[in-house]
Specification:
heterodimer; A: 210 residues; B: 373 residues; TIM Barrel; seven-stranded parallel sheet; 14% strand
Amino acid sequence: MADLSALQQAVIKGDRANAVKLTQEAVNAKVSPKEILDQGLVAGMAVVGARFKKNEVFVPEVLIAARAMKEAMGVLEPVLAKAGIKPAHTAVIGTVQGDLHDIGKNLVAMMWKGANFGVIDLGTNVPPEKFVEAAKQHQANVVGLSALLTTTMPAMKKTVEAIKAANLPGVKILVGGAPITQAFANEVGADGFAPDAATAVDVAKKVLAA
Amino acid sequence: MNTRERFHAQMHYQPRDRSLIWDFNFWRETIPIWHEQGLPKDIKHDYTGAGTDEFFGMDPTARWTGYAGLCPGFEVKVIEDRGDHEIIQQDNGVHVLRKKFMSSIPQHVRHLLVDRASWREHYKPRLDPAHPSRINAQRAKEHSARGDVLLLSGGSLYGSLRDWMGMENLSLVVYDDPAWFEEMVTTMADCVVGTIQRTIDLGIQADACGIWEDMCYNAGPLLSPKHFKKYLVPQYRRITDLLHRANVDVVWVDCDGCIDHLIPLWLEAGVNCMFPIEIGTWGADPIKYRQQFGRDLLMVGGFDKHILMAGPAAIDREIQRLTPLVEEGGYIPLADHRVPPDVPLAHYVHYLKSARRVWGKNTNLRPMHPSIA
């Protein structure tokens, strides 16, 4: 009998061996792959995300949980693909032009993957046109822009302008990074602002539902 | 009073003629931009503050004695030239992608420290405290004779390991191989303790000790407080116990980001001074910290660099707001990180003049260059 609550716990604890084993058992038991994903892996990462937001767990605990989910997804992805199940949302993410920082951006990408977003990571120092091109190519619903430096905040503004000028239907733009504030997000016309990686999932879901 | 006497009086809540007027230097690209705004071209950027301190009339910056990092360092070399960017091997063995003319944190592209074998082969041997190049006693004595503040190198227990391995890799080691994580942290502390002991044995009396960690980001620490307490606090204790025996009771830690979760643990470990109190979007505030932690917590920093960008009225308001804390002591104000290039030179000069008048009481100050005085 597949135990999705045990799978959820394995993800929360970052127990990758058990996460893989329990995912395989659920697949073998013909549990719907969507159910395994939503009630096991994503539910586990949601608990981790909530604890992260409340500072009950920290970066290493999130990393081991995300690794457990990733390895379990190695078992589940072929089954999801066979069933034609795709992520509900697709996100493009990158650090804006002139900025080489990637820790915050990587954490947000990890949290979005944990919430079953398809994530295309463009890396660092990404020019505005590359964000536009990737959003078009992957039919993204969300574009996430990261900056660590006050000096690269103008590049974030330019990128928002470029994405808006491209008139991509349904694309929401989220911004974040150490110097970024809600006021700055409003000023540049972003659809959402995530003050930290832990809240990036909630903010993305909120702007997508709006 | 000389700089050292003023430092001790300020850090120990004792009477003094005025506050120290210090800053945490500038981003490398700030100075060329300021050249366009009127700064004489012969004033060059220098991380020791040698040229800029004199020009701006700052009190001499604290001087390091001893080095508890990698000895010898790795060869610094260009691995790949990409036009305005380059991949270089840093002296810590890490390959990074960086802008050629930018002083900001570069992007790591390859780490040499990946497992126990690479630790044993490349890093552990470079952490021998007995390495002959760790201490320059002559220079320390010269600084001391000039009345400079002498800082012992407290090295780093976590921050350097994170640099050498990458944050994600080191975070996983905490769970995958905790014994190795503990061994690395202990080795780092051994190097610090051994280097400080050698410095003491040479008869050098330091005024403070500086530890570098940079282990927090805008939402909190990169390592859980639980692991911090388990692995780092006992090792900090070894360092601070030695320092206290040597009459060094100001032990500061350089850590950007939101440090709120770690301050109580640092205090527990005997690390009693926070630097540079980055204000950030998380709203750190030296005044609130004093209310929360009392006089046991010493602070250096805490003047929001964004206020330097905002202009004279905002600068003056913030100087007035911080003045009671400066007067009380246990606190030396300075910009909460190196001054970035988006601070206009005119704002910075205004800040300095106000700080010199209010905190420096226009008393016994080093003169500013006539072009800005």
